[in-house]
Amino acid sequence: MPTYRDHAVVLRTHQLGEADRIITLLTRTNGKVRAVAKGVRKTSSKFGGRLEPFQHVDIQFAEGRGSLEVVTQVDAIHTSRLGEDYLRFTAAEVLVETADRLVTEERSPAVQQYRLLLGALRALEVGSRPAPLVVDSYLLRALAVAGYAVATDSCAGCGSADVHWFSPMGGGAVCAACRAPGSGVFDAADAAHLGALLSGDWDATAGTPLATAKRVDGMIVAYATWHLDHALRSLPFFER
Q1: CA 124, CA 109: separation in Å to the nearest integer?
Q2: Is the four-CA dihedral 184, 187, 193, 199 of positive or negative sign?
Q3: Closest CA to 32 of 120, 113, 92, 87
Q4: Pairing mode, if any, of strands 31-37 and 20-27?
Q5: What is the pLDDT of residues 28-69, one digit of tens each?
Q6: What is the pTM (predicted TM-score) of this model?
Q7: At what angle do helices 86-102 and 111-126 cross, to 10 degrees?
């Protein structure tokens, strides 16, 4: 049975039979891969806790039949400790669910999504930046890579610089003429914070008033919900 190795982040797992699990991973080279980890729920499993969500691993697959590969070997590259803190755990759940939803095609390279996810998980673990800012920045960047870049300083509809509204379904910042029902007020402070999150300008985000950060967070959640077709299941558990 042919085998191959890759680096991967574990996105999610679910039980299969009495002792196995199906593991969904985002890999560096092969994109999203689903694989069976046989016997992983047994106390004697050779995989241990290395196939839990958020773990960064060096993994070997055997090519299986149909859509599922078979895990044959796993080595930890970095052991995540995000599960030890509720806020960071729930933030990480938002990240991996988003990655799982955006990378729809299995075994197709998604290098940028892999790097974004890995970087955001590491940022959460280091804890030098507030978890809500890490999540908001990740959502914007991951959506942009997937083809849903948000407009911040010119109208998503006509390109006008005279923008005063934010429309999730309209692509972000919009002018009065392109404003759709349900659009929210969008001012210069909102635009600056949104742009800083998108570009990763952490110094700029640190000086944003709390009211502005909360308002922009709501815009980002609405934008992500619209482009992902429905709300992320993990978002209600993430204490912003």
Answers
A1: 25
A2: positive
A3: 113
A4: antiparallel
A5: 999 999 999 999 999 888 887 899 999 999 999 999 877 899
A6: 0.95
A7: 180
Fold of 3-78: OB fold (Dihydrolipoamide Acetyltransferase, E2P) (2.40.50)
- DSSP track, the chain: --EEEEEEEEEEEEEETTTEEEEEEEETTTEEEEEEETTTTSTT-SSTTTTSTT-EEEEEEE--STT-EEEEEEEEEE---GGGSHHHHHHHHHHHHHHHHH--SBTS--HHHHHHHHHHHHHHHH-SS-HHHHHHHHHHHHHHHTT-PPB-SS-TTT--S---EEETTTTEEE-TTT--TT-EE--HHHHHHHHHHHHT-HHHHHTS-HHHHHHHHHHHHHHHHHHTSS--TTGGGS--
Rounded to an integer, what is the distance from CA 15 to the centroid of its chain? 23
The residues spanned by each domain of the chain are 3-78, 82-233
Alpha-carbon gap, residue 90 to 69, rounded angstroms: 28
Reported CATH class of domain 82-233: mainly alpha
Q: What is the pLDDT of residue 112?
A: 98
Indicate the length of the chain as a whole number: 240
DSSP string, 13-66: EEEETTTEEEEEEEETTTEEEEEEETTTTSTT-SSTTTTSTT-EEEEEEE--ST
d(CA 167, CA 147): 17
pLDDT of residue 198: 96
